[in-house]
Each structure stands twice: as C-alpha cells, then as structure tokens.
Amino acid sequence: MTTSLTIPSACDFHLHLRQGDMMRMVTPKVAEGGVSLAYIMPNLQPPIKTTDEALAYKKELQALAPNVTFLMTLYLSPELTVEEVRKASKAGIRGVKSYPRGVTTNSESGIESYEVYYPVFKAMEEEGLVLNLHGEIPSDHNNNVCVMNAEEKFLPELEKLHKAFPNLKIVLEHATSQAAVEMVKRLGDTVACSITVHHLQLIVDDWAGQAHHFCKPVAKYPNDRNALREVVASGHPRFFLGTDSAPHPSHAKESAHAHAGVFTTPLVLPYLAKIFEEIGCLDKLENFACHFGKQFYQVTQKDGFETATVTLVKEDNVVVPQQYAIATDPSTQGDLGAVVPFLASKNIGWKIAKNFC
Ligand code: NCD
Ligand code: ZN
Which residues fall within 8 angstroms of residue 290, CB to CB, at 6 or more apart? Predict the structure, then answer.
C-alpha cells in the first residue's frame, strides 16, 4: 500500500480567485493545496475583458502568492477585438474564456452565438491562444433542456468550432458527462478537457439538497462519473486538472437560491490523493495534476514556471476544516462570513507533509 507520494507541485488549469476580501483569503491558499501554477478565470465583477485589466489583476494575485505562477485569461464578449487578441498574446495572456449567457455565476454578459466571434477565434488560432469553453447551453424547458443534459446538448457546438478552427486549442472546461469524454477523445489533439476534483467524487444525488456540492455544470449520473474516473485512470493526456474551485460565502450557498461553486483550493492534492486511491489509480495522479495540462498549454520557463516538489502522506485522521473565515483582519474576523470547503469536517486520509514553499 502506498503511504507516501512525492510529486511535482500541481497545475490547476481552471481557478476562480475572486476580488477584494475573498481574493485576499483564497489566493494564499493556492500554494497550501500544493499548486504552483494556476490558470485564472476572468468572471469578476465587472469581467476581465482587456489585457490591461488582466495584467493588473495578475499583479494583485502575484503580490498575495509570490510562489505561484499565474496564467491569465480574458472574458469573451463583443468588446474583444482581433487587435486586443494580438495585444493579449504579446503580453503573455494564454486564453479566452467563453460563458454562454446566464448559465453560471457572473455570466450575464456571456455570449449567445459563436459565429460572430469567428474573426476573434481566427486571431486566437494564429496567436496560439486557448479557447476555454464553459460547455453548457442555457436551459430551454420547451425543448427538454435542463442542467442534466445542458453539457451534452452543447457538444455539437464544440465539434463545429473544432471543425472550423482545427488548429485552435480548445479546452472543454470541467467536463461532467460520458458524452463529453467520448467527444473530446474523438476530436483531434487540439481539443482537451479539464476535470475537477469534485466531479470525480460527486453524482446528482450528492448535490440535490446539499448546497455545498452544487456547482455548474452539475454533477451527473453514476455512469458519467465512471467515465471521468475511467479516463483519468487510463492516463489520457488530454484530460487534466482544472479544479474550478469557486468560493462563495456560506450565506450565499445556504440560501433559497444557492450560488454555484465548490471550494477545493486549500486541499487540492490531498483530495486528489484520496480520490485517486479510491479509484485505484494513485500512479496516475502525477500526470493528471502536474504534467498533462502543462503539456497541452505548452507552459515553459518563459511563463515564469519552475518545478518544485510536494510530498503527500497517508494518515489516519486528516479532517478538512469546517470553514475558512473570509476576513483576514483579526479585528473584523467573522464579519464577512466564511467559505465552507469541499468535504468539510470529513476525514480525507491524506495531507501534504512537505510543500514546495
Ligand atoms: C463558477 C463561479 O462561481 O465563478 N461556479 C461554478 O459553479 N463552477 C463559475 C463557473 O465556472 O461556472
Ligand atoms: Zn469555473
């Protein structure tokens, strides 16, 4: 039985770090979770739409976590021009995130049709920028579309985009379905999937009635979770870690209208060790969490990234904290609420014994 694992620090290719007090609480926790490279989502309020905004945001994050390399993205919107794509590329911005309108947190200015963006996608293809897709179509009850099939119904759009731009690197973010896994396997080398920690663990029964497991896209059927588990256990190089860790204050989760998002940042590698051990593929954790994403994105030292190592150990009683207070100023602690992490108060059996920083 493996009881200790030394691997390179991990890369999280889909992360929400927010703004203000939440950002100040969450960002230092990236390294605590064993992650030294993070690909940052732009769905702030207002969204990050320009190179200058992304660089200013990066500076704030870097000051809070000097040991982490941040790769930045822009929010796809009508304001994104071909010129801005070229400017972004020169400035080291790595991708553009597309949110269909209204399907998730801060997606009010998301998009309704992809065709109008073809000139932008062409420029991205030429510049080597990655298109990050939130792959869901909005619910349409007259046509039997709801959260359970919204991802599957999006897949023809993914295929169409890939056919139109075969050299454009596309990541179907936070895949949750067997259909998505099959489609991405079938498409070419320029199409990949990020997979979250929580979607390897949860199914629909786990979030129905349990606000802290509610996220978008929602966790699906047992066979869908099996497909995710099988593809990571097979060591497929186009399926890699993107946690989609998305913190919300507990009062926003535990409300009549629960906000979507699961918070995994402080314990990314321990959660993964627990889950990969349960699936029986601990030997596949390193490639999934540390190498495959970097290979797809072709991250090099030019991005400021340097390899470091993390040691995980198996222990009898590793209990996840009940919550993380948002306020960092001791005099106001508690005023701003707290974030409840994934598997709060549960024993996950693995911890980081030696971190990279
Ligand atoms: C994300 C968030 O809260 O920003 N929520 C989520 O459930 N995943 C948005 C997103 O990535 O969909
Ligand atoms: Zn996300």
Answer: 7, 8, 9, 10, 11
Q: 253: Cβ below 6 Å to ligand 1?
A: no
Ligand 1 atom closest to the CA of 261, numbered from 1? 7
Q: Give the distance (Å) from ligand 2 centre to CA of residue 244.
A: 4
Over residues 24-54, the pLDDT tens digits come to: 999 999 999 999 999 999 999 999 999 999 9
What band does 302 get if pLDDT is binned at 50, 70 and 90?
Answer: confident
Q: Give the three-state DSSP class for 315.
A: coil
Q: Do 155 and 183 touch, CB atoms closer than 8 A? A: yes
Quote the ligand 1 centre to 342 CA distance (angstroms): 14
Q: Active-site residue numbers?
A: 14, 16, 97, 134, 174, 244
Question: Which domains, ranges and CATH numbers included, belong to the chain?
Answer: 4-354 (3.20.20.140)
Phi, psi torsion values for 197, nearest 5 degrees: -65, -50
Q: Over the stretch 309-348, which tens digit does the pLDDT of each residue have?
A: 999 999 999 999 999 999 866 666 556 899 999 999 999 9
- Note the pLDDT of residue 113: 83
The pair of three-digit structure tokens given for residue 200, joined into one six-digit string: 């390897």
pTM score > 0.70 for this model? yes
Number of neighbouring beta carbons within 10 Å of residue 283: 12
For residue 106, give the ligand 1 atom closest to its CA. Answer: 4
